[in-house]
Design a protein that fits this description.
The protein has one domain. The protein is 77% helix and 0% strand. The protein is built from 12 helices and no strands. Helix 2 runs antiparallel to helix 3 and helix 5 (120-131) packs across helix 7. The longest helix has 37 residues, at 8-44.
Length: 309
């Protein structure tokens, strides 16, 4: 007669796995708050610093925080990536995406900009066909269409509510998607290595762009610039730890909490409440993204299961 109860060893093992998963989810939640706070810092200095200068602050702080963190975790391999050219190209696309997003953020509130940015997974899906040779079914294309309808509802092209800044945010989402494709191709490099290369390239590029402005920095700009950069760096580190503790397919849906975080901080700081268009559009974008993640999870399971005999 076999026992129907788990052994203490198995029970403890499952408990530890559950604790790691819960901690990973908590870290993703924390990262969304940190990224929202980072955007608040950018808004506070948008009238005294250019988008390129804010990106410089963000990447400068990112290097200061990420380099010691990466060296401690993976050692000198951070300066010797397996895919150097992919990391360089990824760094260039990342800084371009950051600057474009900040240009859009100068004329948009944080919830609107965040919602548009979350259409990036739709672009990733489209680019994966070209660069990764993936096959995308009709259902995922329909989900992508729903996501774009959500963007159109927020942007409202052809109406008096339309602002050209939303184009910057949308292009930033596309550039971010290309950066994500490069991340998937540089699969043999650690997350820490990519963090360091992205931040260093970001500092180099933005220093070239704003070196004349660096000497014209107020204390107000320095405080919020460094604070925003610190929030950004800590958010990235939270994500690194989270995705080491739990599968990406499990954690990815929780990243959409950033829309709630963006709305919350905007309300607390400026009293901004998203309008009906933003609420409906963001809901469609989230639904599109979650359904795409669901279909990707099903495809992964079928791939791992292999053909039936």
């Amino acid at each position: 007669m076999t026992s129907q109860t788990m052994s203490p060893t198995v029970d403890v093992g499952l408990s530890r796995v559950n604790e790691r998963v819960l901690l990973a989810i908590a870290l993703v939640f924390v990262s969304t708050l940190l990224f929202a706070a980072c955007d608040v810092g950018a808004k506070f200095i948008q009238h005294e610093a250019s988008a390129e200068k804010i990106a410089w602050w963000r990447n400068l702080t990112y290097v200061i925080v990420a380099l010691p963190f990466a060296l401690r975790r993976v050692g000198m391999s951070v300066v010797r990536p397996v895919h150097p050219w992919l990391n360089i190209l990824r760094g260039l696309t990342a800084i371009c995406g950051t600057i474009l997003f900040l240009l859009g953020l100068q004329h948009q509130n944080i919830p609107d900009a965040t919602a548009i940015a979350f259409v990036s997974p739709v672009f990733v899906m489209a680019l994966s066909i070209v660069f990764l040779g993936e096959i995308v079914g009709v259902r995922r294309w329909l989900a992508a269409l729903v996501g774009f309808i959500g963007v159109l509802i927020i942007v409202q092209p052809g109406t008096s509510s339309f602002h050209y800044a939303s184009i910057f945010t949308l292009v930033a989402a596309f550039v971010g998607a290309f950066s994500a494709i490069l991340t998937r191709k540089a699969v043999r490099d650690s997350a820490e290595t990519m963090m360091v290369w992205t931040s260093v390239i970001g500092v180099v590029v933005t220093t070239v762009l704003v070196w004349r402005e660096i000497g014209q920095t107020s204390w107000h700009e320095a405080i919020f610039g460094l604070a925003g950069g610190l929030f950004f760096a800590l958010g990235q580190i939270c994500c690194v730890f989270a995705y080491r503790m739990a599968p990406a397919s499990l954690l990815a849906p929780f990243s959409y909490v950033q829309m709630i975080s963006a709305t919350a901080v905007s309300y607390l700081v400026w009293g901004i409440v998203p309008g009906l268009a933003t609420t409906v559009g963001a809901s469609l974008i989230v639904a599109s993204g979650l359904y795409s993640l669901h279909r990707e999870r099903l495809r992964t399971r079928q791939r791992l299961a292999g053909p039936e005999l």
